[in-house]
Amino acid sequence: MKTRKIPMRKCVACQEMMPKKELIRVVRTPEGETQIDLKGKKSGRGAYLCGKVACFKLAKKSKALDRALKQPVGAPIYDQLEQDFIQVEEEFHAGKDGMDDDEF
Ligand SMILES: [Zn+2]
């Protein structure tokens, strides 16, 4: 029996290992901007979070992103990312489970 190798990454907030596609990537670009990278293709240092706002809030509280990105992320950036995260969360899950809601 063959086992497919699924790339796993650790959520920086809850420390759970998850398949990469289940996680939302936050990236610090070479220009020094911290932003959500939904497609996982931007260059820069990345950190992964579960696709859950609860995990983002945890990361914000514990400053997990500061550690993961090796640079301080200011409070306004955390607030901005939280807004983005809430928007992106819907899109992220809609894209993933799109097939189940097609019947109507
Ligand atoms: Zn998590």
TrEMBL record:
InterPro entries: YlxR (IPR037465), YlxR-like_sf (IPR035931), YlxR_dom (IPR007393). It comes from the Bacteria. Residues 9-83 form the YlxR domain. Coiled coil: none annotated. This is DUF448 domain-containing protein. It comes from Paenibacillus lutrae.
